[in-house]
């Protein structure tokens, strides 16, 4: 037995398939909600980190601004002492570790004879504070952003990132505070420089995930710090792909001072962003591959473990089911042996009290029943064979009782056929010629089978005997009726059409006892039904009269007599052959067609109509042709 076709293997595979589908569905549902939950938690975690960092940077920037703002009145009180002004900038640098440099940049000629005057203090490479004068022709601070913007706007200002060549010699951003006199005129700009290296270290330390990166963006769209400090967030018209569009959207939101989250590149990453109070904005971008890394590893472990578990499940199910279904295999072998005739085939021993025991009891009962049935079948078969043989003999006897030698001479042509629906039937026909008179009859016994055949034989015998006596047609039928009514406990009756033709005169005497009307085919080719006076069938009531009739026949005419097996023959759709179709057939008979050909053609037409439908009644046809001399 091949394992791929065994019941246990197929059932185990079905269990494995259903289990796998349920498991995969569960994994997908859990994975979907896990991804969703982890993504939400990741965004929440990154937002918390960003919020904490924002607070920290705001505190630092606030300290820088406070330091500078608190020095404003001191500068105003010591404008007459230029040496002390250097001391003020030195104190600003010394008092705040985030500040790497500070200057008081005066407007031109504030001190007579000094176009540039800007006392400056900064940290050197050894973290020592040095002081110097910044303003000169090579260092025209009047045109620099940190001086020009607050001078024009009269508002404090944080500059864009720049490299302070000639000053602190580092990448920095500068907080500038305009100093005004009593009339509100600006006479100097007090500044504090913050090294971008400090901010870079501060920002770069923020890694919620391994490949996360954080950056600060100023109001003009420049990076203050990040992985690309000189890159702007302005839209690049030459790169139109979706990812750059999303980064452009992120930059616009940050420049606008918004806060929130943004999906990047078909959910490849997400960004959380928020503003600082000075107009800058900070953002953290984290790739989802880092967010879901642990989940993917866990899913992989679950898949591997589950695959091993499913394999073990299949193996365990296969072994268990194979053991449980082993009796079924033995029952199958026993069933095959019983099908081959061995009804004593050994059945498997069943010790469990479950369906297998019920199956064993069923097989055991079937064995005993089959043994008994076969014994009865053999006996019945012998009896059926005997009865079939006897019925075949009865059929032969019945067919031998009706004439099979049909006369065909210069005066008349007779032919007939009888096809029982069963082995024996109730239809019959007969004819005899006595002194140039043709006696003929056709009949149909109620019912079928052997009883009908017995009644048929009695009726035919009575007709032949009475016809030989030369009785009239009505008297003949009355005698036949009396014979059949005697001791007719089964109430069987016969419809028949009997008649005699005087060949010398062409006179037809006939009587219809409840039978189908015959068809007269005239010599000119026209055909019609001969509707006779109604008479009751024979064998119903004894002593009743039967009304005879007469009609003159011309030479060359034909008589077609038939039983209802012709007109009531049915096709597969239960549609009957019908009287009209029979009449149409009669009107198309060839003029020189013999009686035998006529009967054969009619039977062929009936079979063509019914095709392969089962014959439902006996079919009998009798035709008589009066030839033209």
Write structural notes for this entry.
- This protein has about 625 residues and is α+β, with helices and mostly antiparallel strands.
- Among the domains are: about 130 residues, 2-Layer Sandwich (Beta-Lactamase), CATH 3.30.450.20; about 80 residues, 2-Layer Sandwich (Beta-Lactamase), CATH 3.30.450; about 220 residues, PPM-type phosphatase domain (Phosphatase 2c, domain 1).
- Helix content is about 45%, strand content about 20%.
- The strands form four sheets. Strands 1, 2, 3, 4, 5, 6 and 7 form a seven-stranded antiparallel β-sheet that branches. It has a five-stranded antiparallel β-sheet with strand order 9-8-12-11-10. Strands 13-22-21-18-19 form a five-stranded antiparallel β-sheet.
- Strand 8 and strand 9 form a beta hairpin.
- Helix 1 runs antiparallel to helix 8, helix 8 crosses helix 9 and helix 9 packs parallel to helix 10.
- The relative contact order is 0.07.
- About 5% of the residues have low confidence.
């Amino acid at each position: 037995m091949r394992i791929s076709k065994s019941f246990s293997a197929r059932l185990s595979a079905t269990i494995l398939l259903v289990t796998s589908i349920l498991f995969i569905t569960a994994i997908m549902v859990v994975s979907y909600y896990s991804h969703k939950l982890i993504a939400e938690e990741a965004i929440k975690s990154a937002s918390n980190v960003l919020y904490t960092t924002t607070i920290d940077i705001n505190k630092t920037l606030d300290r820088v601004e406070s330091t500078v703002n608190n020095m404003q009145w001191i500068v105003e009180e010591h404008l007459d002492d230029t040496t002390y002004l250097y001391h003020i900038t030195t104190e600003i640098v010394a008092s705040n570790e985030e500040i790497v440099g500070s200057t008081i940049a005066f407007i031109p000629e504030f001190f007579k004879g000094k176009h540039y005057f800007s006392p400056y203090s900064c940290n050197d490479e050894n973290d020592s504070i040095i002081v110097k004068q910044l303003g000169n022709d090579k260092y025209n601070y009047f045109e620099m952003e940190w001086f020009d913007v607050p001078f024009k706007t009269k508002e404090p200002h944080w500059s864009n990132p720049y490299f302070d060549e000639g000053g602190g010699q580092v990448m920095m951003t500068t907080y500038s505070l305009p100093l005004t006199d009593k009339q509100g005129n600006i006479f100097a700009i007090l500044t504090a420089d913050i090294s971008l290296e400090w901010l870079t270290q501060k920002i770069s330390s923020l890694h919620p995930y391994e490949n996360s990166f954080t950056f600060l963006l100023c109001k003009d769209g420049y990076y203050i710090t990040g992985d690309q400090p000189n890159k702007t967030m302005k839209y690049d018209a030459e790169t139109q792909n979706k990812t750059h569009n999303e980064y452009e959207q992120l930059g616009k939101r940050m420049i606008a001072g918004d806060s929130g989250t943004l999906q990047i590149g078909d959910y490849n990453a997400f960004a959380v962003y928020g503003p600082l109070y000075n107009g800058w904005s900070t953002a953290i971008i984290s790739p989802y591959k880092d967010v879901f890394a642990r989940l993917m590893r866990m899913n992989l472990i679950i898949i591997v473990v589950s695959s091993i578990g499913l394999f073990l499940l299949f193996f365990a199910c296969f072994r268990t089911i194979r053991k449980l279904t082993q009796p079924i295999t033995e029952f199958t072998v026993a069933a095959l042996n019983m099908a081959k005739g061995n009804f004593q085939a050994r059945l498997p021993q069943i010790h469990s009290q479950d369906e297998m025991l019920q199956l064993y009891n069923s097989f055991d009962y079937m064995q005993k029943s089959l043994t008994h049935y076969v014994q009865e079948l053999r006996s019945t078969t012998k009896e059926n064979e005997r009865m079939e043989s006897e019925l075949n003999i009865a059929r032969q006897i019945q067919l031998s009782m009706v004439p099979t030698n049909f006369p065909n001479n210069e005066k008349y042509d007779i032919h007939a056929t009888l096809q029982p629906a069963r082995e024996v039937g109730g239809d019959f026909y007969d004819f005899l010629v006595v002194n140039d008179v043709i006696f003929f009859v056709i009949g149909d016994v109620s019912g079928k089978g052997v009883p009908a055949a017995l009644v048929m034989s009695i009726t035919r015998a009575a007709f032949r005997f009475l016809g030989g006596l030369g009785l009239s047609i009505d008297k003949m039928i009355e005698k036949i009726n009396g014979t059949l009514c005697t001791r007719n406990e089964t109430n069987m009756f016969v419809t028949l059409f009997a008649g005699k033709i005087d060949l010398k005169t062409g006179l037809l005497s006939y009587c219809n006892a409840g039978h189908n009307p015959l068809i007269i085919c005239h010599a000119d080719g026209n055909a019609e039904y001969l509707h006779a006076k109604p008479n009751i069938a024979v064998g119903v009531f004894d002593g009743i009269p039967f009304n005879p009739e007469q009609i003159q026949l011309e030479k060359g005419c034909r008589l077609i007599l038939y039983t209802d097996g012709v007109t009531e023959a049915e096709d597969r759709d239960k549609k009957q052959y019908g009287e009209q179709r029979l009449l149409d057939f009669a009107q198309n008979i060839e003029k020189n067609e013999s009686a035998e050909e006529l009967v054969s053609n009619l039977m062929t037409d009936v079979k063509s109509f019914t095709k392969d439908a089962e014959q439902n009644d006996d079919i009998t046809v009798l035709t008589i042709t009066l030839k033209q001399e």
